[in-house]
Amino acid sequence: QVQLVESGGGLVQPEGSLRLSCAASGIIFSPYAMGWYRQAPGKQRELVATITDGGRTNYADSVKGRFTISRDNAKNTVYLQMNSLKPEDTAVYYCNALLERWGLQYWGQGTQVTVSS
After folding, report:
1. If pLDDT is split at 50, 70 and 90, which confidence band does 5 have?
2. Which of 99, 100, 82 is nearest to 91 (CA)?
3. CA distance 64 to 3
């Protein structure tokens, strides 16, 4: 059974920081591309950041320079360090695992991030 379990969300003031974690189980983690997506109320889910099996990263323009995605294959975990948070970053953040050549994709249950004073 594949599980992606996110943690680290919560309420933070503007300009604050949070680190999200996503622990994967039930898959061989290292070949997967991992990603973070988010969905705000009334909006579509959008890509935040991805990291390939080789460590290449990609970011949405709205988070470049503020967010950093990383992975620890020994711990089957992907992280999202979020700095200089803004109210518009408020959303449910979802972890994604993708093994494109095999057509395999999994999602976590999401973790709420709220940026408010």
Report:
1. very high
2. 82
3. 28
